[in-house]
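pasting input
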Amino acid sequence: MLSIITFSLVACEKIIEFKGKETQPLLVVNSIIQPDSTLLVSVTNSVFFLSNNLIEPIENADVLLFVNNNFVEKMEYVPVDHDGYSYFTYNSHYKLKAGDKVRYEVSAPNFDKVWAEVTIPVPVTIIALDTLVEQNIYETDTYNYTPEKWHCKMKFADNANEKNYYRLSVVKKIAGYNSYTGEYEVRQMEFGFNSNDMLFNNDPANSGIIYEYSNEYNIFSDDMINGKEYTLAFDIEPENGGLGQISENDSTFFYFRLENLSYEYYMYLRTLSSQNDDMGFLAEPTQIFTNINGGIGILGAFSVSDKKVEWKAPKSQYGI
Amino acid sequence: MKKICFIFLIFNVLSASTAAQNVTVSGYITDAENGETLISAAVFEQNSKKGTVSNVYGFYSITLPADDVALNFSYVGYAGQEVKFRLRNDTAINIKLFHSIDLQEVTVTGKRSEIGVRGSQMSAIEVPVAQIQTVPAIFGETDVIKALQLLPGVQSGTEGTAGFYVRGGGPDQNLMLLDEIPIYNVNHAMGFFSVFNADALKNVTLYKGSFPARFGERLSSVLDIRMKDGDAKSYHGDISIGLISTKLSFEGPIIKDKTTFSISGRRTYFDILAQPVIAIVAKDEGMEGTTAGYYFYDLNAKVSHKFSDKDRLYLSFYLGDDAIYAKMQENYGNEFNYNDGSDYNNTSTMKMNWKWGNMITALRWNHLINSKLFMNTTAAFTRYRFFLDMNQMESYYNQYNQQEYWATTAKYHSGINDAIVKSDFDFMPNPNHDIKFGLNYVFHQFKPDVIAAKEESSEYDPNYEPIDVQIHNDPIYANEMALYAEDNFSVFDFLKINAGLRYSAFLVQKQFYHSLQPRLSARALITDKFSVKAGYSYMSQYIHLLSNSSITLPTDLWVPVTKKVMPMKSQQVALGAFYNLKDKVELSAEIYYKTMNNVLEYKDGASFLGVSTGWEEKVNAGRGWSYGLELMAQKTVGKTTGWVAYTWSKSERLFDRAGQEINFGRAFPAKFDRRHDISITLSHKFSARFDIGATWIYSTGNATTLALQRYEKATLPYNNVGNRGGTLDYFESRNNYRMPDYHRLDIGFNFHRKKKHGTRTWSIGFYNLYNHQNPFWIYEDREGEGYYAGNPASSIPGDSYYVPPKRVLKQISIFPVIPSISYSYKW
């Protein structure tokens, strides 16, 4: 009897024929803008989900840039080397500013013409940043370990006249001479932090009895703080590594950044984060936000305000 | 209160004023053999051609001119009775009907006076419990909800589950009433079984539209289930042993013809049978003392007492729980402690106790105020609770032979409690009017969730911070009340109308919502056998169910409306034609159109696993509409009974409010929207010793969301977080693809044999007889291995390129052919 019940609960899997219409590839246009930089636009094609075709860069697209409703230029297709990898993008020569309304129109043979538009947010003023250092002591007979924990508070004022979307990030930057090459170099990475702040919506009360929700990109909206001053609380453990060895003469800085995101970019990050939480057939799959009219992808924008704090690494960190 | 007294006065005056010409015959209609009251039994007076039907308590009242009368009492499957006398004064006649000798072959009893050709009610189906018991079911577990899923306009959800979707509505829009009291969670075992044990039930009626004013507070359906009162004459029992559960029912008189009881219980024993296997595995793994299991049980009980012909008392009780329990103990033996060089004995124990279920208690008082005015007053309590307790402890002995430990405790509780008081009145001033009115009050206590976590350790660590937290949402209290009045009246013989009005109000956290809901249904009798009907209903719902969309989980939470999340509202119109074919087959065709407002859908990727905090942020409100055609042929008499049902329907949702867009603000098919549903449910009685039941179901595949394109993810401007490149799936729209069609055949054989004290029955069944692999879930996957192939375009010897595995669409199916066998003995 047990075997009958077990047998009945064993799921059967089989390959089935796709009976829908094979959808045609769409133009995929991706670009995230920061003020005081030029625009880089990636143009590729999408592929049918059952095909093994590769996603290819589209070299012969016309990418027209408009800023504040004025045509600026036809963007140039160039390969960009990034950490040894080639990314093919369309580049502009125009330096964009906060507050600019940026629009591009992209057309390519065999694809419908697509367009997107975004306004670059203006940076938000960080009113104050406090870091309270807590020194922890772990002692055993053979080993003393005294890691630091920084209790950080970042105060900023939300603009009451507009809907705002934010991202908090911390960047660790180490500058110094490489002991092997003798060259001066700067290494940096985005650094993890912990926060139970309600704005991140990932406090324990929201986590459920089973893992439920994550905020992978530490983004939040001004829904609860509209027009108010607010102090974000979060902790970092500065000794956490990831940037290789530190030497005594290196300078280490932490940049505490508050990014003001466009709605489009916020939604893109939010849906990306939700997609990682998808629970198979238990929930509806996440539709990743797109604002490319006629195509897929994202045209997002953000601006950054930051505060820099220097950190003197303890001797125990040297050579790690 | 003054108003109520005034209404009483009006009705009494009305009664008195009509008494000059007319007198009233009233009483109860019961089964002569067991004293069970008969619901909707017909009463017809031959001379005046006037008639009525008994109410849900078997009470009837008919007011006629003081003259010679010939009253016919009838109920399908029972021998009719005619009573002739000269009617001079108000007269009480209690009628006992005997099972018909002429209709020995009748296997199913049922009466559809208010639902069939002559009644004003449409969009309602009464399914005889005897019929439900012949529908073959998975593991042989007879299931009321799964039988209802075979009716037109009712769609099943995920394969095998007991959720149901009525005319495009959601599973939270169904009001499930057990002896008039709402039951919140009708599922056992993640929805694969329902809580209704058919052995304990007397009558099942499903309303899909044209709702009478006495029902409210849900948008899409009312399932009115009545428990058996108990045999007033003699003791009877029924024991049934199946593959996964055993059921026991017992009923009889406590005081003959006055006090009855009925008790039914069911418990699964999969956990008990699995214990020896678990013990053997645990012993092999060094985890002796481990126990684990899952079970569910139901207990239905009812006591009724007849004080007099005017007063009866009913006490109903239901208790049902699902439970998962586990106790694991692992002894790691002596292990080497690298910190201090000692040996230590490490033990790990874990205990889990997970339970959820409903409890209902209802005390009802039937009182005959006068021969025309019947009152039923109910005080009831209904509760759904969910709790999970987990304890874990690791312990060992240190070098000083002292026990060190690390222990954690986690608790989670949630639930809903309702205290209900209601009074319903039936007033039958004359045969042309059947007036129902009443009021009810519900005090809701929503206990959304309490999470408690505790961690402690005996180890010395200056930086160790024990955890002792309790996170909870405060209980939410809400007051809900409703007043209603409806009149089921005849305008000549041709036209019968049920017109009603319901006013409901809901007060929660200083937020007050209310709604006035008109209801109307009308029947035009074209011939004695053929009628057309039309209906309109406006419904309002003040509570929402937070659940995952595909299956039912015990963590699903009911929450009240808030300032931000408004009550759901719906309007429905329906038209239908009904034909009685030779008094054997009821044919019906109905079309309907329904709109729903403020319905909720979960945001993309959002799921609820038992936490209500911030739930308003996880849902979007929108609207929906559905329409369809339902055809049905139902035969309830003869050796062959059953029905053939066909539904064509379409149900869509639109979430286009600013900031609450789903599917980019475009309309999309609702979950479980299906174009065609066909079901054929038949049973045939070959002889007193052998009968067969069979069901064949066909439906269009469920809508599902499938990414038909994949594309490049944007390069994010962070050098580590999220900047992983890769591809994303592109979902053009929600529910954009149809799974393969669904069909299956279930069959059951019943072999009966008379024994000395009763009848034994062997039942053998096959669920999904021809083993059709029905779709449960589909997804994209890769099949086979990738390989390197030579590059014909290259001049370099050995140059090759990688050919990745083929991408394919895969289907997961559950429930292949499942045989079942059960033994039952009735006495």
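fyi Chain B touches chain A through 86 residues (CB under 8 Å).
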